[in-house]
Amino acid sequence: MDSNTYQFPAVRGIQAQREYYVVMCPLKLIPRLFVFDDDEVPADLRAQRSLNRARVPDIARYLVNNADDYVLSSITACIDGDIHFEPFASKGSHRNLGFLYVDMKSRILVNDGQHRRAAIAEAIKERPSLGDETISVVFFVDAGLERSQQWFADLNKHAVRPTRSISVLYDRRDPMSQLCRDLVCRVPIFDNGFTELEKTSISNRSTKIFTLNAIYQSTRALLCRKRNEPLRPIDKELAILYWTKLGELIPEWQMVIRRQVSPAELRQHYIHVHGVVLHALGIAGRALIQQSRSWQHEIVKIENTNWERSNEIWQGRAVVHGRMSKANESVTLTANVIKQELGLPLSKDELSLERRFAELSGK
Question: Where are the domains of the chain?
């Protein structure tokens, strides 16, 4: 083939009686090979959603920081132009193995993977050696805008993101995820099979108390750390100590640890076995630790807190219209009560939220 043609080793397949091809494409070719629909073109005239540029730096950073241990799933694209597949053999097992030739004048449009494409371009600028590595690309032959839009819909219709809990469970890069897996092994109220490791919600009859994601969010609030931010040894010790101490001070938590009451029973009558309150306890704990070196003595005040769901103080805060609320405002309003129970002052923003809450609730 001439110099105006791309050549790829390829595997040919059939879907819906149409040929498609799987090729290995060098990363350095990705930025110039694939194009996007212009973001300014109306959505009904595009075959792809517009690029969310805020996602690109995170993916690029992932590639650069994990150059020896990254993984990229396939890009799916359609080719609008001349192609030719040349098999190694006319029959037998090699008839679907060969070379795919693509005219350089062809328009190759990404159906799935536009953020990967943009991130690859950014990552190669910082680490050029990535350009010689490859990504698998699934090529379909373009059949016009209408079919390309249908391909996009079909590719995304059945995509299911993993739950936040299972993402924490499997993430070996994020130090906070590692810490939370350790907490499940070291803190009694999280141990003994009380933590839901896969789901992000707990059914009424479940024997679990907290989700792994709830522990993650609450511990991030306690330590005031961002995702993937390095942790110090003292952070791990502090988290273990704080959650263990709380478990000793909240009577109902002790009851469930001793198997004197079921998590389902607690969930029905108390708010402190719900993620919103665990998160609030993390926020309040951070404020207490920052203010007092003797926080382990100060935290005993929490023993006197009435955690019953029927307690009027939680209405409109943790409990909204009879249901537990996970909204950010609910977390803050719940944390405010806990901070006041511990004798801690509220910040300017927290006081402002309290005033607004009082006006709306008439309290």
Answer: 5-157, 164-361
